Amino acid sequence: MKIMPCPLNGPRNINEFVYGGEVSELPDVATAPDSDWAEHTFYAYNGTGIAREWWYHVASGYWFVAERHRVTDEIIRTYDPAVLAEEKAQ
Amino acid sequence: MPFALLKYGLGSEYPFEKHADLPPPTALKKRYDVVIIGGGGHGVATAYYLAKYHGITNVAILEKGYLGGGNTARNTAVIRSNYLTSEGVRFYSESVKLFRDLSNEFDFNIMYSRRGQLTLAHTDSAIRAFRQRAEVNKHFGGKTELIDPQQIRELVPTLNMYPGQQPVLAGLWHMDGATARHDAVAWGYAKGATQRGVELHQLTEVTDVLVRDEKVWGVKVRQGSAEHVIECGIAVQAVAGHSSLLAAKAGFRLPIVTYPLQAMVTQPVKPFLDPLVSSPAFHCYVQQTGRGELVFGGGSDPYPLYNTRSTMELKEELLAHAVELFPFVANLKLMRQWAGLTDMTSDYSPIMGLSPVENYYLDAGWGTWGFKSTPICGKTMAELVATGKVPDLIKPFGVERFSEFRQVNEMGATAASH
Ligand SMILES: Cc1cc2nc3c(=O)[nH]c(=O)nc-3n(C[C@H](O)[C@H](O)[C@H](O)COP(=O)(O)OP(=O)(O)OC[C@H]3O[C@@H](n4cnc5c(N)ncnc54)[C@H](O)[C@@H]3O)c2cc1C
């Protein structure tokens, strides 16, 4: 059984979690052209490196971020989304 | 074929097939008119039809592993055309028609077997969706009907009609549903193509796509430790799960995410299951092979990955459902398990046709549904290569649909409904 280190609940079975897509920047709602929305909606990261992803712990209703290697499946780091806000503020 | 068979049957010598094998490998040439990247079913079928219908034979198929060793070797060989969209049904029914004649055309038995495919509805909303699919199918000449529980019992007497908390309420009975030997499809096409002069280079990986002024002019390949540059007029990429990686080498992105898809097979038992049976609500489908094994498959893995490992999680979930549908299979042993890399699009339709690079054509986004389309993909891609015009049948599947918000929402795809 693969283990996901949840920032809130600690290590848990991966099938308690749902994958929620790549962490990406929302286009500017007021000004972004259609092409930016197409890019944002359909063109996700699909490389062979480390991806930044949303994950959801179903039982506790908790969203967080995981950095995971797309070839080895190694989960390198998980953290609370507050970290994203801090990064943005900097 | 039948007379030859009779002659061998009466003769005392072991039948000797002159072209039983593929020709031995040759050295790569400096230039080809057409280079096909990926020696799966789609790549070799494209080469076959290029040679057969368009007389284009200065063609090289470049395959990093072995002929048909990718998803072509890993799929569960469900052939059907009972999709939902008009674009999809029209396209897949052409493929089913081509499949029927392949054994004769190749003079090589692909073991095409028309068994019919039964999809189960456990809710009223599923029945409504099935009605729509049946009508769309009939409109395009397919044989698909909505059937009731009594008819299901007659078709599959061993099915548990009250699995879990969700009784079987109705079925979508697709009489054109079939299966075939997937390896034979790849070999049949490869033999036909190489006999007509096409070169198949296995263990030849494309490491770069060479583009000048937004036009492809060649590819870089690696054979063992040797590197070569090959020039080409046209290049086609048909690399399934690796589609995004190849496109990146050509300098553009694709709206594709790669997910593993797993399947498994049990030890053989006496024949009891003729149709292919699928339950979207139970995320599982099953069929019995000619050898008696049960093949189980379902939806893609829950998160993206470039890795063909198998997992315990998927097996537990999928087989728990399978046992509800057919309780007596609980004691069977699994013999093999495997996974392939599927190139998933968000509308569950393929990406075929032109790319942002001139003379570089795409056959991608085949996800969990591309074995059944092998013949028609080969035929339409060959037409595109030969004429430079996108055939009508594949026009709806161009990559530009994602920037024009013109998706072909194929909810009849296995991954979509599972
Ligand atoms: C478990 C499973 C079950 C499935 N079940 C069904 C089913 O029941 N019905 C159905 O219709 N479809 C099914 N599919 C989907 C189907 O298998 C694929 O869509 C189809 O086989 C794709 O064919 P292809 O020729 O494009 O790809 P492949 O057969 O994968 O061929 C692509 C080839 O490209 C090669 N390649 C990759 N990168 C390079 C490179 N850089 N240079 C050179 N070569 C390269 C690979 O080695 C590979 O051989 C299933 C898939 C899986 C994994």
UniProtKB/TrEMBL annotation, chain A:
It comes from the Bacteria. Pfam families: SoxD. One of its GO terms (molecular function) is sarcosine oxidase activity. GO terms for biological process: tetrahydrofolate metabolic process. Coiled coil: none annotated. This is Sarcosine oxidase subunit delta. It comes from Parathalassolituus penaei.
UniProtKB/TrEMBL annotation, chain B:
It holds the Pfam family DAO. GO terms for cellular component: cytoplasm. InterPro entries: FAD-dep_OxRdtase, FAD/NAD-bd_sf, Rhodanese-like_dom. Keywords: Oxidoreductase. Transmembrane segments: none annotated. The keyword Lipoprotein does not apply. One of its GO terms (molecular function) is oxidoreductase activity. Residues 34-78 form the Rhodanese domain. This is FAD-dependent oxidoreductase. It comes from Parathalassolituus penaei.
